[in-house]
Amino acid sequence: MQNIETYKKNFRIPLFYFVTISFWFAMYTYVPVLAVYVEQLGGSHKMAGLILGSYGFVQMCMRIPLGIASDRLHKRRLFITFGLAFTFISSFGMFISKDLTWILIFRSLAGAAAATWVDFTVLFTSYYKHNEATKAIGIINFLNGIAQMLAMLLGGFFAQRIGVSSTFALGAVIGAVGLIASFFIVDNFDENSKKITLKQIGGVIKDRNLIAVSILAILSQLLTFSTVFGFTPVFAKTIGANNFDMGLLTVFSSLPSALASLFGGIYLAKRFGEKPMVVLGFLIMGVLTITIPFTTNLVLLMITQAIAGFGRGISFTLLMGLSIKHISADRRATAMGFFQSIYGLGMFFGPVVVGILGDALNLSKAFVFLGIVGCITAFLAVKIIESGKSSLRL
Hints:
Layout: H1 2-28, H2 31-40, H3 45-73, H4 76-96, H5 100-114, H6 117-125, H7 133-161, H8 165-182, H9 198-205, H10 208-238, H11 243-272, H12 274-290, H13 298-324, H14 332-360, H15 363-384
């Protein structure tokens, strides 16, 4: 029995790496071409925005209940397995259907899957010391970014060589593999810890630090899911990009983001402080979003969005780490559920607003609007993040 427990302990982190990569890979194989695909099926900018935004809307609704349930049941692995199951169903459903209503439903199921990211992050941080939350978040966000990058690169290749439907099939296969592997994940919870009470839940949700970083995260996700995971590939198509190019564009944005997630949480925050790095990240995103409609060269667009990805990776990783850094272990899923649920507002409203603006005005003006929002958010971060390495204020 002791040998089995030792084996589990030694291999729990590598296994978690594999499951995490499978989880995000399965959900992002089709992301670079989804908006274009919806419009090819007859959908408007508004419909594309609704389908893209449904992913964030479902997360927004589910993450707080999932976080509370996870803290009360002490079953992180169970929710992770459910997440992989929904990932498989979502990708497979979009593979077999070309009806826009069903695509909306199955994309919403991807949001239900992503809602279980609460348990991924909390279980993974439990493998590290309590004060190493930012480091753990940096590592798992790096895996997140690498998985998304590989998925979008292969997805773009499959879409160009075989067809868009093949990207959904690829996601379904990897989702099924990850689902099987998830059954072997090791839960890590103090059996003597008490289950969270309603009063404690209220205390977590009212935490000033948590509220502050959640507000900033809303705006971060609004930018991300309106641009690189939303309408930037649509713009790229207008300047000559094919399906593979759209995947490559998203990869060039995601790789710097993944690297920034890793080094931002481990090195840059320690060297320069969390506040300056968050502010810098938003400034980079804002300025380079404004440049999108003025870029007529595909290579230059990839370069600017790669730099924007670096800013996104730094700021968002630090915000996520700060959301649970000072929360006790038995309440972290609730705090992370609140944080991720709140930033789901940005994931939902970003694509929807840009879709509406794109139909009413044009995408160029929508990008300029988003860039200004990013710059304003940098200013907001200056105001609500105190001049320390971790404390925030409202």
